[in-house]
Predict the structure.
Amino acid sequence: MVGCVVISGLVTPALGSTAVGSDAPSHSEHQLVFPGHDGH
């Protein structure tokens, strides 16, 4: 369990610094869309 925490602590920032990671949307920008609605 501790190994998983250590590995994820190293890998997450490394992936975030890649081109794909920098283009990913922020977690605070997600919209909640209910079924049948287009979010507008």
Notes: The chain is about 50% helix and 0% strand. Residues 2-16 form the longest helix (15 residues).
